[in-house]
Amino acid sequence: MNNSQDFSIITLILHASFVVQLVMLLLVTVSVGSWASIFRKFFSLKRTRSLNDDFEREFWSGTSLNELFSSAAQNAKFAGPMERIFASGMREYHKLRERQIGDATTLLDGARRAMRASFQREMDAIESNLSFLATVGSVSPYVGLFGTVWGIMHAFTGLASLQQVTLSTVAPGIAEALVATAIGLFAAIPAVVAYNRFAREIDKTAIALETFIEEFSNILQRNLSAQATASGR
Questions:
Q1: How far is it, in rounded angstroms, from Cα 229 to Cα 232?
Q2: What pLDDT, in 10s, does the model give residues 213-233?
Q3: Which pLDDT score, from 0 to 100, does residue 204 have?
Q4: Sign of torsion over alpha carbons 23, 27, 28, 32
Q5: Residue pLDDT, tens place only, 125-155
Q6: What DSSP assignment string belongs to 25-47?
Q7: 91, exposed or middle or buried, with CB in 10 Å at 0-12, 13-18, 19+?
Q8: What pLDDT score does 8 carry?
Q9: How much is the mean pLDDT over the chain?
Q10: Can you list the alpha helix ranges (DSSP code H) found in the chain?
């Protein structure tokens, strides 16, 4: 019964050396920050996907571009990435038209450049905190390993003065040191799994936004061609 208590996780942590305890505290702090980042990113990507789907559904419902632009301008604070990209393209398109620029290529290139710039800003925002998860996933095991190596060195240094060394004298020190590696893996594994899942989700979002830019550009090109044909008549 005593052995069970002596080798409980709490007991091992309390009896570890100061450096190992410091490493454990660092890893626990990083793990808490990692989980907080995971939950924030999960709900953020879920909201982004929902807003993009809602706008795309409205975009293809037959609503006029001017009505969509007016709605996007009024709803700027609560709009999704796709709606903001659309608004930036339409805004640049209208600015060029107000300057009496009638060249279709110039109008289309201006709108496309504005949408690409907006796309980059949106992707930077969507990918925020993802590098933190990657860092946690790659570094935490090594930090835990450092704590383990340090703890084992400390344990063997303490055993140097003993005349007889048995498994019962060696085991507690090694067990205390190995807890650091366990905590390092506990911090790293969820971060790696979450990073891979979020990276795939972000790639899908990027493809959807780029596809929308091309489709919207084609719609603008068709409208400009129709207007040129009407003017020619």
A1: 5
A2: 999 999 998 888 877 676 655
A3: 96
A4: positive
A5: 999 889 999 999 999 999 988 888 887 777 6
A6: HHHHHHHHHHHHHHHHHHHHHHH
A7: middle
A8: 66
A9: 85
A10: 2-6, 9-15, 18-59, 65-74, 81-98, 104-126, 130-159, 167-232
Tokens of 32: 């808490």
Among residues 156, 150, 138, the alpha carbon closest in space to that of 22 is found at 150
Which of 179, 206, 192, 144 lies closest to 16, judged by CA? 179
- What is d(CA 74, CA 58) in angstroms, rounded to the nearest whole number? 16
Q: Which residue has the tokens 């129709």?
A: 226
Contact 112, 89 (CB under 8 A): yes
Nearest to 114 by CA among 194, 14, 216: 216
**Cα–Cα distance list, 154 to 27, 108, 119, 173, 174 (Å):** 20, 69, 53, 8, 9
Written as six digits, the tokens of 38 are: 């995971």
Copy the structure tokens of residue 43.
Answer: 């709900």
d(CA 126, CA 98): 33
Q: Which two tokens stand for residue 93?
A: 């398109």
pLDDT exceeds cutoff 60 at 179: yes
Alpha-carbon distance 216 to 149, whole Å?
58
